[in-house]
Specification:
By secondary structure, this protein is an alpha/beta fold. The chain has helices at residues 5-13, 31-34, 49-58, 63-83, 90-104, 111-119, 130-139, 152-161, 184-194, 208-217, 246-251, and strands at residues 37-40, 46-47, 125-126, 143-148, 170-173, 201-205, 221-224, 240-242. A 6-stranded parallel sheet has the order 5-4-1-6-7-8, sandwiched between helices. A two-stranded antiparallel sheet has the order 2-3.
Length: 256
């Protein structure tokens, strides 16, 4: 039987714990007291699938192929620019990657289609389990933030579009540091704004490489593996993995 502090006091007052060795209330603390904040990558919260659906609509029969090539080059460009000290922000690297992917696949990318696909990242909606999860986390006293490679403008636009105003104490874009995750300077932003120890901040990733980066940094890490991807071979594993946000709820002690 697991008791929280309030239940302990109620049962003690009623004499219902008679005959049992009574622990000190502090011994009843759950994972909720161990973790004090949660930092999210963008995509455990925002559903990117409409972007890929738009690609299929614009390039029937080739959309999945374009999306795959585009996404791979998108992150490659970000990491290459960070390593080469030639920074360009998420929106620019996303557009550049799209242009390259279309050329690679010999697809004619008209200016209007190009604009539609890039701007789709400014109009994302939330996954269905997001709002109830965020509500529960806030009710439990956990502080919430984004910690994403997306620009602040992209994050704020999608927060508004997904009607998630008021949930996040901080909206952190690595653009402020002119770098990208998994650079440790990017993950450090969460420690700096929350003013907590890194082991008190749960990081929630969408991509396996981001889960690895957060573990390298020292965050307790939950990988919301919505696309059922294989674990990266990078020498570390997340603390918890699941297909939806219920894995986070279990990890912080809010769900059995």
């Amino acid at each position: 039987m697991t008791l929280d502090r309030r239940e302990f006091l109620q049962l003690s007052a009623a004499g219902l714990l008679a005959g049992r060795a009574l622990p000190h209330p502090d011994a009843l603390l759950t994972e909720r007291a161990k973790y004090r904040a949660v930092a999210f990558d963008a995509f455990p919260i925002f559903d990117p699938r409409p972007v890929f659906a738009l690609a299929e609509g614009l390039f029937p029969g080739r959309g999945a192929e374009l999306s795959s090539a585009w996404r791979a080059r998108q992150f490659e460009y970000q990491w290459l620019r960070a390593l080469g000290h030639q920074y360009a922000d998420f929106l620019q690297t996303t557009e550049d990657a799209l242009v390259f992917a279309a050329k690679q696949l010999q697809l004619e990318l008209a200016p209007d289609a190009r604009s539609q696909l890039v701007q789709a990242y400014m109009k994302l909606k939330a996954w269905p389990d997001v709002r109830p999860t965020l509500s529960s986390l806030k009710a439990a006293g956990l502080r919430l933030a984004f910690l994403s490679n997306m620009t602040a403008a992209m994050l704020h636009a999608s927060i508004k579009n997904a009607e998630l105003d008021g949930f996040f104490e901080h909206v952190l874009s690595t653009d402020a540091r002119k770098t990208y995750k998994p650079d440790s300077l990017a993950y450090q932003m969460g420690v700096d704004v929350f003013k907590l120890k890194r082991e008190e901040i749960v990081f929630v990733s969408f991509a396996g490489w981001d889960a690895s980066g957060a573990k390298w940094f020292g965050y307790p890490t939950v990988w919301v593996n919505r696309l059922d991807a294989p674990t990266e071979e990078l020498g570390v594993t997340p603390d918890a993995v699941g297909r939806d946000l219920s894995v986070l709820m279990k990890f912080v002690g809010l769900l059995d």
